[in-house]
């Protein structure tokens, strides 16, 4: 359940950014989370609800964009979409690849008043 | 300034006029702002981890973050490594509860600090920073961080280590890398422990290696049994030569 500690990091980061901008209430937090980042969205939402109680983000919503997984084949250099780390290249069936996208854990923006 | 009374409200406000001729000021809500952030969610942990890394490197302390599922033999591997290695080792021991493992390390004579994470399922860089302040590992030494037994959560958290060491035992099944790919991706070293039990279990080393290398082609393997000492020399030599 590392989502709980990620939720805490989200709250701290969002509060820091909102205070810097002179805001007192966080309305929405935009996140970008990769499909291969190992984070369960339901657990994250549940965790955030718990950690944001009595904070300036108590009413805030989380808007999560999932970045799809993208791998580059080590055999034929072609990029292809993946849902897991264990998918063979659809062109040459090679199993070795590097992940180009899908491991992001990023805060894009905070909407605050 | 208020047009009616000339007062200076502290914040932007709306003036509300009543029928009886009086008026009041109500704070005007801030108009919502969109603040562009573009930061990694773990940036706070990562900057603490970098500070730890700088400390370790300045004192030539080679630090390893040991991760595994519970019961893979991390503590036995540590006690046997401490007994046999000709280099000073200090230990940061992470568990949800108890000081049992720290006691086992202490019995070898090594310096140890126990971190209890309570409900937490992994160590983070801040916990390690506080543990270092207590442990005061000596210069030119090794520091082993035994993470909470968990193959999922520790994968995401950089502690400032030189390398993550993932430990699996042959009693756990050879498909562990397929089930928990993130930790095998994050690690640089993989130790397959309890090799003395290989004749009694259905564990295929080749399958395990193939699956692990698929997510991490650069992974370095050691196969050993901390209990019998089988294969320990290779691991110890590697640590001596660091």
What would your notes on this structure say?
The complex is a heterodimer of chains A (113) and B (242). Chain A is 27% helix and 34% strand. Chain A is an alpha+beta fold and 113 residues long. The radius of gyration of chain A is 17 Å and the shape is elongated. Chain B has one domain (61-240): Rossmann fold (3-Layer(aba) Sandwich). In chain B, the strands form two sheets. Chain B has a seven-stranded parallel beta sheet, with helices on both faces. Chain B has a two-stranded antiparallel ribbon with strand order 1-2. In chain B, helix 7 (205-215) links the parallel strand 9 (189-193) and strand 10 (220-223). The radius of gyration of chain B is 26 Å and the shape is elongated. The termini of chain B are far apart. The A-B interface holds A 1-2, 5-6, 9-10, 12-14, 17-18, 20-25, 27, 31, 37-38, 74, 84-86, 95-96, 105-113 and B 29-45, 120-122, 124, 152-153, 155-157, 178, 181-182, 185, 211, 214-215, 217. Strand 6 of chain A pairs antiparallel with strand 3 of chain B, so a sheet runs across the interface.
């Amino acid at each position: 359940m590392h989502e709980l500690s990620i939720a805490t990091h989200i709250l701290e980061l969002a509060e820091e950014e909102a205070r810097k901008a002179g805001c007192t209430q966080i309305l929405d937090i935009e996140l970008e989370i990769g499909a291969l980042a190992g984070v369960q969205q339901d657990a994250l939402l549940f965790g955030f609800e718990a950690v944001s109680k009595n904070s300036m983000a108590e009413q805030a919503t989380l808007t999560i964009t999932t970045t799809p997984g993208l791998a580059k084949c080590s055999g034929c250099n072609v990029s292809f979409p993946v849902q897991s780390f264990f998918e063979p290249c659809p062109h040459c069936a090679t199993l070795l690849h590097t992940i180009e996208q899908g491991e992001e854990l990023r805060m894009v923006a905070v909407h605050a008043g | 300034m208020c047009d009616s009374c000339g007062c200076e409200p502290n914040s932007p406000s709306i003036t509300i006029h009543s029928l009886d001729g009086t008026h009041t000021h109500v704070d005007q809500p801030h108009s919502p702002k969109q603040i562009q952030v573009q930061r990694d969610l773990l940036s706070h942990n990562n900057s603490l981890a970098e500070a730890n890394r700088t400390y370790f490197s300045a004192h030539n302390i080679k630090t390893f973050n040991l991760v595994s599922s519970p019961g893979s033999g991390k503590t036995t591997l540590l006690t046997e490594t401490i007994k046999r290695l000709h280099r000073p080792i200090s230990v940061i021991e992470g568990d949800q509860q108890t000081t049992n493992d720290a006691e086992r390390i202490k019995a070898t004579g090594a310096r140890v600090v126990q971190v209890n994470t309570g409900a937490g399922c992994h160590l983070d860089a801040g916990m390690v920073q506080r543990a270092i302040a207590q442990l005061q590992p000596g210069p030119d030494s090794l520091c082993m961080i035994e993470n909470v037994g968990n193959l999922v959560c520790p994968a995401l958290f950089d502690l400032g280590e030189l390398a993550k060491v993932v430990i699996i035992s042959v009693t756990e099944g050879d498909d562990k890398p397929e089930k928990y790919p993130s930790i095998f991706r994050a690690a640089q070293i993989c130790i397959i422990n309890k090799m003395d039990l290989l004749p009694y279990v259905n564990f295929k080393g080749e399958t395990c290696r193939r699956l692990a290398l698929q997510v991490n082609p650069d992974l370095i393997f050691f196969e050993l049994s901390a209990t019998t000492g089988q294969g320990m020399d290779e691991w110890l030599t590697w640590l001596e030569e660091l």
